[in-house]
Specification:
Elements lengths: L15 E2 L6 E2 L24 E5 L5 E5 L15 H9 L17 E2 L6 E2 L57 H4 L33 E3 L16 E4 L1 H5 L19 H9 L27 H7 L19 H4 L40 H4 L4 H7 L24
Antiparallel strand pairs: 1-2, 3-4, 5-6, 7-8
Amino acid sequence: MKISIIPYLLVFVIAITLHDGEKTVYAFHENTDNCTGCHNWATASATSSGTATINTSGQITSSGATTVTHHPYNLIGSDQSSTCLRCHAAPYNQMLLSEYYVMSIITSSTTNTNVPAGRTPGGDFAWLTIGDADVNDATYHGHNIVAQDYGLDASPVYPEAPGGSYPSSYLACTSCHDPHGTTVSYRRLGGIGYLPKSTPGKAFTKAAPIAVAPLIYNRSEASTDTRVAYGKGMSEWCQNCHPLDRSHPAGANAILRREVVSNYNTFIGSGNYTGKQATAYTSLVPFEEGSDDYALLSSHARIDNSQMGGPNTGNENVMCLTCHRAHASAWPQMFRWNFKSDYIVVNGEYPGIDDAGTERGKDRRLNLGYTQQQVQAAYYDRPASMFAEWQKNLCNKCHPKD
């Protein structure tokens, strides 16, 4: 896919869920005075001829009077996701990102390659625009939301959701997230009965999942992990659109077996099984705790590595987000790590197509067409030294084969 880079002038205060003291602060989506942030109620008589463009500095320039274009549902963007991204996409080349940005892109001054700047748990939709058509097609990097104003199109591969019947041509941010906030849920995810008026099909039959994220979460994980405390119901909720997906056991019935718990807690890196339960957690392979206790989950949602305990209650389970990111990642099928390669790290370095690194690392089967900088960004800036010298893929965290 090709991207149309558009900086934004409209940055609104949005709903942020705070988990210290179980307080919830809502500003934008719950305030009916802010309807015009997404909808344009201007009448045809209030418009006149002219054009408006946005330059690379984020400034609106116009020729004549601007024309108000009436989009479906009087949205200010061409479609639902384009409207969302007017606030939820970062200005071009902005390094320090707000928590609510879900799409961003940075052009490196050293390698002149595009490197997404977002580091949210869900991933950066910019990865949908970066890839090698031969070994790592970008269209497989995530949920292909339709956002015409940003160069994002429906999946050319899947006319419907894999394992389901949700039409790909209607996939938007609002397919999962309720923009009007009719219910309070994790990340405003739609619950039972949720069905946007703009989407054909059946209403959701599964409740929104229970989870708690730390207040700061769009951040580098070069030194410490961002731990989202996933409680329960994530995979069940994903079944609203993917009811027949049976690629890997997941959900409340996929309780981590005793041997898997042991593997998870002792695995540090390929060939190294000397780890301890108290420090076993990694955000590259999170698990669901099987709990709806918000106080407990809130105590686990941290960014300072003070809560790095692995599974130990017998209630933990595999979920869809154990292996995948919710929005997008650098890797096929929006995996959290490169499962297509034999190695994540090659002789102590990330693989890459650039001149740096080993000859082995330049093998496109290992780097999937990325530079070392892009690979490191895909792992949220972790230095390669955090892994084993010849680190194999992270399926080994639960299923050791090396």
